[in-house]
Amino acid sequence: MASSPTHPPLPPKPSEPLPSDCCGQGCMPCVQDIYEQELKTWKRECERIRRGVGPEEASSVLSPDSYSPCTLVAVRSETHDTNVYRCRPADGQVLRARPGQHLILKLETEKSSITRQYTILLPPRYDQESSSELSEFEVMIKLYPEGRASKIIAATWYVGQVAHWRGPIGGLEYSTNSVQFVVIFAVGTGVLPMIPVVESIVGDDEEEARVEALLGFRSMREVLAKQRWKDIAGYWNVKVDIFLSQDEGGDGNVRHFGEIHRRKMGPEDIAPRIERAKQRDTLFLVCGTTDFEKFVIGLLKASSIPECRIKKF
Ligand SMILES: Cc1cc2nc3c(=O)[nH]c(=O)nc-3n(C[C@H](O)[C@H](O)[C@H](O)COP(=O)(O)OP(=O)(O)OC[C@H]3O[C@@H](n4cnc5c(N)ncnc54)[C@H](O)[C@@H]3O)c2cc1C
User: Fold this and answer.
1) Which terminus has fewer CB within 10 Å in the chain: N or C?
2) pLDDT in tens, 279-308
């Protein structure tokens, strides 16, 4: 008869990403980096449990290196398939984040665990200097009918549930007036990191950079964070263009966004912006599906835009 272990059950081993999970574009961190970090954390945790040592004392700030339990305190619907989840870290932990950063969510499945990355939706008018610590944070998550994480979130995330997060990671290091022009190409949930980034630019009284944002969605009902984009589009130094690839029209209340184009964002929209921006000191921000990012970065490189002027989220 097999002897039962004398220690509590070990956590499930993280699942290895599939080759198709990597977009091959040098993301930082790449899915493989995240997997290796997960594996190290898992081995450390198993070793700790086997040796009967108690959990490490929690730090007061959410950390990129270890997961913290966070309680779901509110859920609100953003669109038909996207929700905003408000989470409160346990034990009075806080989150220190800057615009464009994301967190890593770990979800346990029966046999293993999976991780997914989600942008921190910093509050509007978030001031890094005066309110750099958040006792609650929000993420906006689009749920895909066939998505592995999506299915778990849709089935199990109710107020009071606990989820495990680590971070923050990534983000944009931007200092006031470091460029003259910021051009954004983003589609779908890729627009989310751009919101706090642009808000931090327009919220800075000293900032003189102009921002041009080209945002793509399938239809008006899929536009994410409508009110925040409307507010952003109201600033003197921002121009927002929304591309709706499958929208037939009919929504009259759209003028506050700036310009609405009822077609897919294409090279005829992107290339002239790159050419125009080349005459000024410009930073290009890109985020969206793998294909979209490859396509835009290809156009930027073909126009000899140096890598230090391109930020992919
Ligand atoms: C840095 C970073 C930040 C991110 N921030 C957010 C965020 O704030 N909000 C958010 O909702 N997502 C965000 N994502 C995407 C997120 O991490 C997951 O990839 C997404 O939630 C799908 O996970 P899943 O397990 O449900 O789907 P998977 O099981 O991984 O995929 C199943 C199917 O869903 C579809 N799918 C998956 N991801 C996408 C996508 N991004 N676009 C189009 N189709 C897709 C595909 O058809 C795919 O075949 C971010 C990703 C990165 C890398």
Assistant:
1) N
2) 889 999 999 999 999 999 999 999 999 999
* Residues with a CB atom less than 6 Å from ligand 1: 102, 116-119, 139-142, 144, 146-150, 188-189, 192, 289, 313
Q: Write down the pLDDT at residue 139.
A: 98
Domains of the chain in sequence order: 23-33+60-170 (2.40.30.10), 181-312 (3.40.50.80)
What does the chain look like in DSSP terms, one character per residue? -PPPPSSPPPPPEEPPPPGGG--SS--SS-HHHHHHHHHHHHHHHHHHHHTTPPPPPPPSB--SSS-EEEEEEEEEEEETTEEEEEEEEGGG-BEE--TTEEEEEEEE-SSEEEEEEEE--PPTT--TTT--EESSEEEEEEPPTT-HHHHHHHHH--TT-EEEEEEEEE-----TTS-SEEEEEEEGGGGTTHHHHHHHHHT-TT---EEEEEEEESSGGG-SSHHHHHHHHTSTTEEEEEEETT------TTGGGSEEESS---HHHHHHHHHHHHTS-EEEEEES-HHHHHHHHHHHHHTT--GGGEEE-
pTM above the 0.90 mark? no
Q: Which ligand 1 atom is the nearest neighbour of the CA of 21?
A: 30
213 alpha carbon – ligand 1 mean position (Å): 22
Amino acid at the residue 43: K
Measured by CA distance, the residue closest to atom 13 of ligand 1 is 118
111 closest CA partner among 20, 226, 228, 15: 15
Taking Cα atoms as reference points, which of 157, 152, 167, 178 lies closest to residue 68? Answer: 167
